[in-house]
Write a structure and sequence with these properties.
The longest helix has 28 residues, at 398-425. The chain has 14 helices and 16 strands. It has 3 domains: 3-73, GIY-YIG endonuclease; 106-255, no CATH class; 267-425, 2-Layer Sandwich (Nucleotidyltransferase, domain 5). By secondary structure, it is of the alpha+beta class.
Length: 426
């Protein structure tokens, strides 16, 4: 396949999975399965001149042999991760599995115990011959997952929606019980010893559906249970299902936005900026740094906005004032940031907002005599990335701009919450 053929596949700029294929009809073969933060950008990267250096001859051969590309969109990168694993398991594409065996990959398994656990384990520790036998210690296996790091991050995010045990020992064994409680996971804390087994097994069912890539079926199940609970006036149960449905489409999977490690390591230093309003009046500006595809938290900076004032009410005039205040704050942050020549300069700057914010940033930089390209992340009504302006021209993938922007927003929100906590205690 040649680069000029890409246009006919109409790949969108959103998360999902893609399949390089060869042939038509019954003779059609899947050569490779991958996931992406931006399907358009990710697939386009396979036609870069340096592909042989970043991916190797196996992937280059795959691209050459392919004559078709299909894709599925997903609301989140997390969902793309589990869908990718399901498709690899289904098709066993040569470019994904050649030179490897089941023992090399990492799998997510559900144990066959009274209180099932969800674990990430290597294929070498799984007896595939006994998997479906009556004496198997595993109830289900999901995968393979090409990246162990991303599987573990994915399980951490899934656990926030559907709680599960991930302890090294079966629940109840050893000294896990302390003062009537049992360890549930480092990120979640403690889980009550007296658990509702029926509810817990329902959570395990949901985890299994998610990990198998059957997220549409999971949504249908949760919707049905929510509706029935409301009819039965079990409003707390209905609220739980509603929150889980919402979380499926809004999970904060910033940690999974990193695409291929080899490709990301060559990405330049990116600085992103955002603001956080404290108690509705004072504003703090933040600067975050992403380099090589990874947040560099030691280099984060905060700026107390000296020209900030009370946030305007929600109205047309208020919206105009908010926009003017945002731009004024951004101008102040950039002016103070570039008053520190001892800090390494970025190759790209990312801001939150549309064309107006992007142009304002470029104007400030021009006044400061700084020639750095600017990208801006446009959000939809649910504050999710809808469009990225200027990333490709700045020489970075749109997914990297989204990651930098999300990290700046996360940092700003964390400062806001800490300040609110201090205010409530005082």
């Amino acid at each position: 396949m040649q680069k000029n053929e890409l246009q006919k596949f109409d790949l969108p700029d959103c998360p999902g999975v893609y399949l390089f294929t060869q042939g038509r009809g019954r003779a059609k073969k899947v050569l490779y399965v991958g996931k992406a933060t931006s399907l358009r950008d990710r697939v386009r990267s396979y036609f870069d001149d340096d592909l042989i250096k970043t991916r190797g001859p196996r992937v280059v051969d795959m691209v050459t042999l392919s004559d078709g590309i299909s894709h599925e969109t997903t609301p989140t990168v997390l969902e793309a991760l589990v869908r990718e694993a399901a498709l690899i398991r289904e098709h066993r594409p040569k470019a994904n599995v050649e030179g490897k065996d089941d023992k090399t990959f990492l799998y997510a398994v559900i144990t066959d115990e009274k209180i099932p656990r969800v674990l990430a384990i290597r294929g070498k520790d799984i007896d595939f011959k006994k998997l479906y036998a009556a004496n198997s210690k595993l109830k289900a296996i999901h995968g393979p997952f090409p990246s162990g790091y991303q599987l573990r991050e994915g399980l951490r995010l899934i656990r926030r929606i559907f709680p599960f045990f991930d302890t090294p020992r079966p629940v109840g064994e050893g000294s896990r019980f302390t003062k009537g409680k049992v360890e549930f996971g480092r990120q979640i804390g403690q889980y009550p010893r007296e658990i509702n087994k029926k509810e817990y097994l329902r959570s395990i069912r949901n985890v299994s559906l998610y990990l198998s890539g059957r997220v549409k079926a999971l949504r249908a199940t949760l919707t049905r249970e929510m509706t029935q609970a409301a009819k039965d006036e079990r409003f707390e149960d209905a609220a739980v299902a509603r929150k889980q449905l919402f979380a499926l489409d809004h999970v904060q999977d910033v940690s999974l936005i990193r695409e291929d490690r080899d490709r990301d390591e060559s990405e330049p230093r990116i600085e992103a900026y955002d603001t956080a309003h404290i108690s509705g009046t004072n504003a703090i500006g933040v600067m975050t740094v992403v380099e090589g595809g990874l947040p560099q938290r030691k280099e984060y900076r905060t700026f107390r906005i000296r020209g900030s004032h009370e946030r305007p009410r929600r109205s047309l005039m208020g919206a105009v004032r908010r926009l003017n205040d945002d731009i004024a704050s951004l101008k102040e942050i950039l002016s103070r940031r570039f008053g520190h020549p001892e800090w390494p300069y970025p190759k790209v700057i990312v801001v939150d907002g549309g064309k107006t914010h992007k142009k304002a940033t470029e104007t400030v930089l021009a006044e400061l005599g700084v020639a750095i390209p600017v990208a801006s992340v446009v959000k939809d009504e649910k504050h999710r990335p809808r469009e990225v302006l200027g990333a490709l021209r700045a020489g970075i993938p749109e997914s990297s701009a989204v990651l930098a922007n999300a990290e700046a927003h996360r940092f700003a929100i964390s400062l806001h919450r800490k300040a609110r906590g201090r205010a409530m205690r005082s």
